[in-house]
Design brief:
single chain; 14% strand; alpha+beta
Length: 88
């Protein structure tokens, strides 16, 4: 599986750009809770979504988040690309 690094602030920008209902939609597609999806995009404590999320605080742009499994991020990017919004 592909690992992906993204800045914390970029992750928050993606979350804010998602249309209303996107978290629930992604959760349904992945058979999980909408809160899990919301937490993926910038929880105070990434442990609430399980292993495979590594957060290095500070530094440029709010720190770096590494996801061992970027499936949720890919779904979000696809939703945004359909709306003509591009992120990393």
């Amino acid at each position: 599986m592909e690992r992906i690094n993204i800045s914390f602030n970029e992750l928050r920008r993606i979350k804010r750009a998602l249309p209303h209902g996107s978290m629930q939609r992604i959760a349904e597609l992945l058979n999980t809770e909408a809160d899990t999806i919301r937490n993926y995009f910038g929880a105070d404590n990434f442990k609430v979504i399980g292993d495979g999320v590594h957060y290095e605080q500070g530094g440029l742009d709010g720190g770096i988040v590494t996801f061992d499994d970027p499936t949720i991020l890919r779904f979000a990017q696809k939703i945004l690309s359909v709306r003509g919004i591009k992120f990393k």
